[in-house]
Every structure is written in structure tokens, then in C-alpha cells.
Design goal:
This protein is mainly alpha-helical. It has one domain: Cytochrome Bc1 Complex, Chain D, domain 2. Helix content is 44%, strand content 0%. The protein is globular and about 30 Å long.
Length: 71
């Protein structure tokens, strides 16, 4: 089992969803809710810690845009 989802796995899961970019930006900044482990059973590390101290909203959006462009 991989440690975390690959960029391609994330892109496949969220690409095409109408609110995916906003949702992922929120996850990058605030982290994921431990009770909502959407990768549970697929990866060992199934939650993300908050990054809002180290990452600006514009940086998070740029990162998410890049992730969603991965094939």
C-alpha cells in the first residue's frame, strides 16, 4: 500500500468535478478532517495537516491547478 496518493491519483479522483479546485485548495490550507478519510484503505497516510501558516491561498491554488493537470 502506498504511503500517500500520487498526484495522478488525486487528479483522476477530482478532475472534472465542478468544485474540485476550491475543495482541494481548502484541504491544502486547512488540512483534512480526520473523520473524513477519503483515501482510507488506499494509502497509509490518509489525512493532511494544515498548511495555512506556510502557504498562501494563491500558492495553494497554483499547486492544486498543477495537481489537477497531471495525467
Amino acid at each position: 500500500m502506498p504511503t500517500a496518493p500520487s498526484w495522478q491519483d488525486i487528479a483522476r479522483r477530482y478532475r472534472g468535478s465542478p468544485d474540485s479546485e476550491d475543495r482541494l485548495v481548502e484541504l491544502v490550507l486547512a488540512g483534512s478532517d480526520p473523520g473524513n478519510r477519503h483515501w482510507k484503505g488506499h494509502v497509509e497516510f490518509d489525512r493532511m495537516l494544515s498548511n495555512e501558516v506556510a502557504t498562501t491561498p494563491d500558492e495553494a491554488r497554483s499547486l492544486v491547478h498543477w495537481i489537477l493537470s497531471q495525467r
